[in-house]
Amino acid sequence: MGRGEVIGEFGRLYEQQYAVALFNKVRFDIEGGGGPQPQLLHRKVPLENRSIFSGAIFQFLEENKKWRNRFFFVPDTYNINYYDNKTSHERGLQPKGTINCAGYKVLSSMDQYWELLNNSLPGVKAKVGQSPILKCATQFPVILWHPYARHYYFCVATLKEQQKWFAVFQDCVRHTNDGLSEEDKVQTPAFTDAVRLYRQAHGHYGTWEMMCGTPPQILANLVMETLLPEIRELITPRLKGKMQERQRNWMLICDAVYSLVVRQAQAQYEAVVESCEAGRPPLEASIRTDMDQIITSKEHVTNKIKAAVLPKAEKLLKVSIQPYISSILEALMDPTSRGFTEVRDVFFRELVDMSKNTVNDGDKDKVGEHMEKISMLAFHPVKMQSCYEKVEVLSLDGLQQRFDVSSPSVFVQRAQILMREQMDNAVYTFEQILHQSLEGQGSEGLCNTIQRCQDRVLKKFDYDSSTVRKRFFREALLQIFIPYMLKQLTPSVASELPRFQELIFEDFSRFILVENIFEEVVLLSVMKDIMMAVKEAAVQRRHNLYRDSIVMTNSDPNLHLLGDSSTIDWAEEYGSGQAQGEKAADGDETAQRRRRLKQVVSMIQVDGTPVQVNESCLEVPSVGGIPEEEVEDQAASAQSSPDSVHQEPVNANGTSPKVKRKAPLPPVQPANNSTPALSNGAVLKEGEPAVVSSTTESSWQDPESAASAIQSAIQQLEDAVQQEDSESLAEASEVPPETVAQLVVKFDLFFLSCLVDMTR
């Protein structure tokens, strides 16, 4: 099935589910919903005027097989921007590239990477202990791996640095994976239901690891799930050369195809959404006018489907579901509750440290200084890492295959996001209560004030933590059992469903779909047992869960008024931020704002180690060996970064790799608006090793033109090198021949034609 067929079928499902989601949203707005109300306040814009972190790390460059020290900066979007050096960032230049981490896995060892790489292409295996692609400059790598997109390789000098960078990259993946807005009650459920129904129609039930990122990214993953096996079957016989060359070529092809699919999925998804949104006003008006009749009609059809489905569902439930509910619930509860307990402990320890320092040096300025650090605790990946690690041990061994659960990572990531939200809610509530308590108070009794605020917030945290975890357990059990039940029941029920559609009035047929009602009936059949299991765990006070009968009402009747307050700038209000504001009084306004951005994590640098030279370039040959580059003397390099001291990474054998210094690079120019983007969000720059960076969409449609243009560029580059013509060399190097030419030279025009036909 080609890309057009996949997106076309998805588009039809999305239009159907959009009308159903709109009906559910309007009905909820009218009827309302129950459930316990949260006690903690929620921050609306948690990362306003904040950046996450910045620092220097060695990155492996595909185009010349070198390790280059680059400066990385992560804004509040969690998209990783990287520059040649810190100065380029501070000057406001465009980044060399941007990494969107959705769908990536963060690896901390080459063995993990080799295993994933070997599994990606059957028949092309690397020997254990041998790198098929690169040699790491140190024994502390950090790798970003994606099943379809480009891979990124980094390394650091110490274990402590590796742990910090691993936590930061992991947080970027966690945040960008969570790309579906929970605030949108129409588009998001319509999208998720359309994806689920599409996969079920093709025999894929259960959880899906690649349900991550924004809707266009998820849609591209859906296309690749179907397209990749076909591409693999076509390409595998044509891969030539050594094992590492075949693996590298395969990754280049995957990234090129994925980039094309993402761009086209983006355009077509936006077109479908725009079409649905344009028709929303008349649909909503019709729903509000006929709400009672629609509900009555739906209830009538639901009762008919219940009569046909419930006996089969209850039999399946008794034999295949009920015996496993308690064991799966316990497997979910233990690591999740440990994680939430660790969140509470980390929050408590931070407040204890603040109280101790206030006793020794008790004034409001000191409190403001500590609160400035605590305010972003939930978004500090290093401090939150101990919380996230608690839930990462979650295991469903023995049950994954039975219930078609691809991996527990879906539940792990969801639990971690909820943990971060609870931490930020607790911190934000404490901020507001403490700030209100400090108004008009002197420096006396600060510790008692902090203690009172702390006790109030922890009590609210315990209640909300119980509520959030119980909801998470119910949702997780439904995600495990419902797909399994649907898979077992659909063959015997599918033939009966069409006759129920005839019972629905034509005017209401857009809002009532028998497929959705069938799934609702299955959900209701198992929900009672799930609710009872979670309720029993709460009654027994297992894992500090509260009973449903315990309801905190009006414990702080005026607290919700503080939720509408503006963000508290502790440094500014208590004087420590005034000097910083004066320093930014001169210069460009954009540069001032960049300097004023408060960073959640300090620069990743181990205490006591020198700062690395931003212009250093380490030579680490790949398996085949790479010629050395021309170098200049160390003094010239030091002059380009006078305040930095070079630090050489260490190889696994304890020796330092040879360091070659390149001539100073020209200033980074801002990216052209016409520059194409990679599938993972990276902006294509000169010399970047991505196939798609040198081929426009029209080139893919005309392989002969692409081959001619690429071969011309290669010849131009070779001539420039032989003539040592710097201007011609700069012009020719805009096309990275070593990566792009492989598609044309190694796999011929026939292969490109087949590839284009498959992706249309």
From TrEMBL:
Region labeled Disordered — which residues?
629-705, 715-734
Record domain PH: where: 50-174
Q: Which Pfam families match?
A: Niban2, PH_Niban2
Entries under Gene3D superfamilies matching the protein:
Pleckstrin-homology domain (PH domain)/Phosphotyrosine-binding domain (PTB) (2.30.29.30)
Protein name, entry field: PH domain-containing protein
Q: Which InterPro entries match?
A: Niban-like, Niban_1/2/3_dom, PH-like_dom_sf, PH_domain
* Compositional bias of kind Polar residues: 692-702
The family this protein is said to belong to: Belongs to the Niban family.
Please give the superkingdom of this protein's source.
Eukaryota
